[in-house]
Write a structure and sequence with these properties.
The complex is a heterodimer of chains A (about 110) and B (about 850). By secondary structure, chain A is α+β, with helices and mostly antiparallel strands. Chain A is built from 4 helices and 3 strands. In chain B, the strands form 3 sheets. In chain B, strands 1, 2, 3, 4, 5, 6, 7, 8, 9, 10, 11 and 12 form a 12-stranded mixed β-sheet that branches. A 6-stranded mixed beta barrel of chain B has the order 15-16-21-18-20-19. The chains are: A alpha+beta (about 110), B alpha+beta (about 850).
Chain lengths: ~110, ~850
């Protein structure tokens, strides 16, 4: 029985942006772990998919990369949010809240079976 | 969007490095994951390969790579099926090539500036009527007036084209104002350009400037060309200069010689003398002057000049009806014929699309398994459609290239052929090559074509049921057959329409040629004379006198007629203002006039309906035609009445039948105009008369020509059948009909290929069924008709739809049919017959194959 939420398309990008905004520079594993922790294990994350998201965000210029060294002494790419990315984060967050509010109203409306 | 494209290219170029970095990241990630989560790592990580694929898809456009791959696959496939590829390529290439060729010709004529220096500042000065019709018609004196007074132009130039005898052959000559070469910036290779002194009426020097090509061809580039004497129509001219190659204006044919305008009189006394000469004007705008300023100035100057010289323009007191407009100096073109041709070639393109679409459908059957395999392996329908469309695009792209290649050869070939019909030495001055715009339009057309023929087959082919398709290759959807049937009908309908139009146009020309003009010109020869330009009027009249005496002495004198204007002159007929005694001269009506001798009516077999023919002593009498009688004396017998013709009182002695001697074929539907025949009086002639002779062998004509030479050895004499003049008037329509015929033949071939393809396909599809029926003892004939019924029906529907379409569409052609009804049954019947024969031929092989089906083999197939 599936109890965890599938990630809505596009929401992963927003989560990654938010994570980087909060924690500054992180490598892919760090981002994935943080998202899992924050979500309280409510999210199924194929951690590989996070790299698709990272490539996409980098292409759009919302995050930048830098090679560094990870905790286990391996070479790793560290990601951080850019100024454009921060603006985008604000816009996307508002957008998301609007959607969430609408969804909330729709789901709370009376007269229907849940 | 551009940056994104560049970024993608960047990623494409650096993809190897990026991928290895990604791999490194992923393995690092996994290592950390294993440290924290142990054996769970694999599951949490998910499909690493998929992750890599997805990331790659982000780097490079997911479409781009697969597009290239699909394209490469398509090319390989076409190479493996050369038969299909060649037929499709030839069909599409021919259709796109026809369209592109027409675009090329149109673009060159409408957009290409004259080959002169700085053409952007050069404008053509033309008159435009209220109804939008434009024409060049500035009489010489008006031009000189405008050129003297206009301030908006660096130079206002005038030109007039002519073909003159140059040594043994003909030369294309431009009479030009002296400033023409200088204003348009012609490069002078040898000698000098024309100067003002060359173009004065009183100048005694006769000078000419020749083209580089004429210098090369006629004088082998001889160094002593300057000062050499050349003869144009027998008149000596001195060459003063050679114009460098690459200069051209005003006409798509190149020019051999430029002669000052004032010398036109030496070469062509008729045109210059009558004051009817009409010049074409162009000008180079002065610096800082806008086109509108220049237009306003010329318009005002011309209007004032014309109102000051109303007598010369013969126009009404309302003043000039036209306004001056300035046009870009291009080679110009009549759009209406292009519109018709575009309709034709677009139909051919639609036909080609239907044809190739059908071929693709047939192919998609063969590829049913391939599609099924792809679907089973997880390809989505969109992906399949994209792949199939890519294949179509490869095909269309190749056809587009072929089309551009055709267009870089065909238009110049056709135009050169056309101008060489009248002058075998002429070359094209216009540069007819596909330009950027044409290539862009062709690309757009190619894309449309690709969708036109590729989309339906792609959608159909991608509708696969993997299980069914993999089990067997049969079980073809009815729907697909329906699509094929409609495509077949469409092809047949279009080819019927194109052939019917071509047939109508040919019939129209033929009809015009056979039309009863009211007089007989089949066995009539025309003799016309050019006397030396130096001849005074008295010498011309003396020549005319002696000719008529010599002819009167001949035993066959009743087979000879003299006139000032032979039939089919293709120019506006001269005329006179005419009114009746007692009428107000302001009410005068314009009637055509021609001077003839009494033999004229006999030679042309024009019946005299009432009254008597001319007597040799007649002077102030006229014959009139029925239209004139009706106009002036309705319900009265005009014989014995008199009228003031051009101010002179004339007695009407006879009425002759209305005949269409001046009817240009394109005006053939107009009623015959009122006409007055005056007795030809040699002592009033300004130029030699023309002689009409009724003899089929031309022996009498030759004898008369020989007499003329004895009377005036310097005369230049032309003898030829009168019908030649008539044919010349129809040549334009013949060309139109030939082009339509070409399209019709192309359409017919394509339709034949299509019909044959569909029938073979049906037979192949239903081989098993035929086999079963045969095995059960069915009659071969009935089996065939049952199996092919749908295809036959599609064919029949196509023919009917095509007939309906051409009956509706033929109204457009009405103006080109010379009075032939657009519903003339002959072309339609011929088309149906031709198509029937071709369809039978095209279905012969498939039907034979069906009849030869061997049940044992058929039942084993698949």
């Amino acid at each position: 029985v599936q109890t965890k939420l599938d990630i809505l398309q596009g929401t992963l990008d927003l989560m990654v942006l938010r994570t980087l905004f909060t924690l500054g520079s992180l490598h892919g594993y760090g981002i994935a772990r943080r998202i899992e922790q924050v979500s309280g294990d409510h999210v199924i994350l194929n951690q590989g998919t996070i790299y698709t998201s990272l490539v996409r965000l980098e292409q759009r210029g919302w995050i930048r990369t830098k090679w560094g060294v990870s905790e286990n002494n391996r070479r790793a790419k560290f990601y951080s949010i850019t100024k454009v990315g921060e603006k985008q984060l604000v816009a996307e967050t508002e957008n998301w809240e609007r959607i969430a509010a609408v969804m909330g109203r729709v789901l709370a409306s009376e007269g229907g079976e849940p | 969007m551009v940056p994104r494209v560049f970024r993608r290219l960047y990623y494409l170029l650096r993809s190897r490095k990026l991928e290895s970095e990604l791999l490194e990241e992923l393995s690092c990630h996994r290592a950390m994951l294993e440290r924290h989560r142990g054996t769970e790592a694999g599951r949490v990580m998910g499909n690493a390969t998929l992750a890599r694929e997805d990331a790659r898809a982000e780097w490079i456009s997911p479409g781009l790579e697969s597009l290239l791959r699909d394209a490469a696959y398509a090319v390989r496939m076409f190479i493996r099926e050369p038969g299909f590829a060649l037929v499709a390529l030839a069909t599409l290439g021919a259709a796109i090539g026809l369209n592109t060729s027409l675009l090329t010709a149109l673009s060159a004529m409408v957009r290409q500036p004259w080959h002169v220096k700085d053409p952007a500042r050069v404008v053509r000065v033309v008159l435009q009527r209220a109804d939008g019709y434009r024409f060049d018609a500035f009489p010489g004196p008006e031009y000189y007036h405008l050129a003297k007074l206009a301030r908006s132009f660096e130079g206002l130039v005038a030109m007039d084209r002519a073909t003159l005898r140059f040594g043994e052959s003909d030369a294309r000559v431009h009479y030009v104002s002296w400033n023409y070469l200088e204003t348009l910036g012609a490069g002078i290779e040898r000698g000098r350009s024309l100067v003002e002194a060359d173009d004065r009426p009183e100048s005694t020097e006769r000078v000419a400037v020749i083209s580089h090509r004429a210098w090369e061809r006629r004088f082998a580039k001889s160094e002593d060309i300057i000062g050499k004497e050349i003869h144009l129509n027998g008149v000596p001219f001195t060459v003063v200069g050679v114009v460098a190659a690459g200069f051209a204006s005003d006409d798509i044919e190149d020019r051999d010689v430029w002669v000052p305008l004032s010398l036109e009189g030496f070469l062509d006394p008729v045109r210059a003398g009558g004051g009817r000469r009409e010049l074409r004007l162009a000008g180079r705008l002065a610096p800082g002057v806008s086109r509108e300023q220049a237009r306003a100035e010329i318009d005002a100057l011309s209007a004032r000049y014309r109102s000051d010289h109303q007598d010369r323009y013969g126009s009404s007191s309302k003043g000039r009806q036209e306004r001056v407009v300035l046009l870009k100096a291009t080679y110009g073109v009549g759009y209406s014929s292009f519109v018709m041709m575009f309709l034709g070639v677009l139909l051919v393109l639609v036909l080609a699309c239907a044809n190739v679409g059908n071929l693709l459908l047939a192919r998609s059957i063969a590829r049913g398994r391939e599609m099924a395999v792809r679907v089973s392996l997880g390809a989505g329908r969109a992906r399949l459609v994209r792949q199939l469309l890519t294949e179509s695009l490869v095909l269309a792209g190749a056809a587009g290239l072929l089309g551009v290649a055709i267009a870089s050869v065909l238009p110049s070939f056709i135009l050169t052929t056309l101008i060489r019909r009248s002058d075998p030495a002429a070359d094209l001055a216009l540069d007819v090559q596909p330009d950027g715009l044409v290539v862009a339009l062709t690309a757009a057309l190619t894309l449309l074509t690709c969708i036109g023929f590729g989309l339906v087959p792609a959608l159909r082919a991608s509708q696969v049921d993997p299980v069914g398709a993999l089990k067997s290759s049969g079980g073809e959807a009815r729907l697909r057959l329906l699509v094929r049937g409609s495509l077949l009908s469409l092809q047949v309908a279009i080819s019927v329409m194109l052939m019917a139009c071509a047939g109508l146009l040919f019939r129209g020309v033929d009809y015009a040629g056979k039309r009863d003009m009211g007089f007989a010109f089949k066995d009539v020869s025309l003799i016309s004379f050019d006397l030396p330009a130096s001849h005074q009027a008295a010498q011309v009249q003396d020549f005319a006198h002696r000719m008529s005496e010599a002819v009167a002495a001949l035993p066959q004198a009743d087979r000879v007629g003299f006139t000032t204007r032979a039939p089919f002159a293709w120019t506006a007929a001269p005329g006179a203002r005419t009114y009746l005694p007692g009428e107000n001269p302001d009410q005068a009506r314009f009637v055509a006039t021609v001077s003839v001798d009494r033999g004229y009516f006999g030679v042309l077999r024009i019946p005299i309906l009432a009254g008597r023919p001319f007597q040799s002593t007649d002077d102030s009498v006229v014959l009139i035609n029925e239209a004139m009688a009706k106009l002036f004396w309705p319900n009265e017998n005009p014989v014995g009445k008199s009228a003031l013709v051009g101010g002179v009182s004339r007695d009407v002695i006879a009425v002759v039948k209305d005949v269409d001697t001046d009817a240009a074929p394109w005006l053939g539907l107009e009623p015959v105009r009122p006409r007055v025949y005056r007795p030809l009086d040699a002592s009033r002639l300004g130029r030699p008369p023309e002689i009409l002779v009724r003899d089929s062998e031309q022996q009498l004509s030759q004898a008369i020509a020989a007499t003329a030479i004895r009377i005036e050895p310097r005369a230049r004499i032309r003898v030829g059948p009168l019908s030649r003049n008539f044919d010349q008037g129809l040549s334009g329509s013949r060309i139109g009909a030939s082009i339509a015929g070409l399209l019709g033949v192309v359409a017919l071939i394509m339709a034949a290929v299509g019909v044959s393809g569909v029938f073979s396909y049906v037979v192949r599809q239903r081989t098993r069924e035929i086999g079963i029926r045969m095995a059960l003892g069915g009659q071969p004939g009935r089996i065939i008709s049952a199996v092919l019924a749908t295809a036959w029906r599609a064919l029949g529907i196509g023919v009917l739809a095509g007939l309906a379409g051409s009956i509706v569409g033929s109204r457009v052609l009405r103006s080109a049919l010379y009075g032939l009804s657009p519903l003339d049954p002959a072309p339609y019947a011929a088309v149906v017959m031709i198509l029937g024969v071709v369809a039978l031929a095209a279905t012969y092989l498939p039907v034979r194959r069906a009849l030869r089906v061997d049940p044992t083999i058929a039942l084993r197939s698949d």
